[in-house]
Specification:
236 residues, alpha/beta, UDP N-Acetylglucosamine Acyltransferase, domain 1, six-stranded mixed beta sheet, five-stranded parallel beta sheet, 36% helix, 15% strand, disordered N terminus
Length: 236
């Protein structure tokens, strides 16, 4: 990741690629004018960039005021000190919270209700670091100073409290990471297939069922070998 170098600005090029990111990732977006005027996620990102620069120039109170105004206008709360990369798209956005020491990479997509939260009262790095090209589903909570590897997808309503390797899919509470069979790369389209999530619990139950059946068969054969044929037939 190169988030520290690639903090998006409010220059024409950065604003243009932000608009293009919305158009490419939201089928409901029709025109650039519509995106500019009616997409709160885009407004939140642009206002955050103003707040971020104020914060790092020493105008911390003014930065917090800008952040507060953005929250009121968009329903999205981003701390002025949070590091947000380029072409980040917040879809719908209502209820998104991004904490002070959070780091978000390039080409990340977040849906409504996402929290990048802290788990410590100490003044240190206490919020997540999200890699490039990560998609975070609606209602997901990513908590603590953990790292979400690039090209991963976090399922809706997952609660993630541990590091996630690159190219993983995470589901459940607490979140369980499953490595992708087909890796996602920078040249691929954004991974917005929220419906394609592994049934981690169902898989574990199936594995246990198969294991128990195999153990029962082994025990039955051992008993049969000892001469208990009636018990063997009963347990087949």
């Amino acid at each position: 990741m190169h988030v520290r170098k690639n903090i998006g600005g409010l220059g024409r090029a950065n604003m243009s690629e932000d608009i293009d990111a919305v158009l490419s990732r939201d089928p409901a977006a029709r025109t650039k004018i519509e995106v500019i005027l009616a997409y709160p996620g885009l407004h939140a990102i642009w206002m955050h960039r103003i707040a971020y620069r104020l914060w790092h120039r020493g105008s911390k109170l003014l930065a917090r005021i800008v952040s507060h105004l953005a929250r009121g206008l968009t329903g999205i709360e981003i701390h002025p000190a949070a590091k947000i990369g380029r072409r980040v798209f917040i879809d719908h956005g209502m209820g998104v919270v991004i904490g002070e020491t959070a780091v978000v990479g390039d080409d990340v997509t977040l849906y409504h209700g996402v929290t990048l939260g802290g788990t410590s009262l100490e003044k240190k790095k206490r919020h997540p670091t999200v890699g490039d090209r990560v998609t975070i589903g609606a209602g997901a909570k990513i908590l603590g100073d953990i790292t979400i590897g690039s090209d991963s997808r976090i399922g809706a309503n997952a609660v993630v409290v541990k590091d996630v390797p690159p190219n993983s899919v995470v589901v459940g509470i607490p979140g369980q990471a499953v490595h992708r069979h087909i890796p996602h790369t920078a040249s691929d389209e954004p991974d917005l297939h929220h419906e394609k999530i592994p049934d981690v619990l169902g898989l574990r139950v199936h594995e246990l069922t198969v294991r128990i059946a195999a153990l029962e068969e082994t025990i039955a054969k051992m008993r049969a070998a000892c001469g208990d044929k009636e018990l063997y037939e009963k347990n087949r």
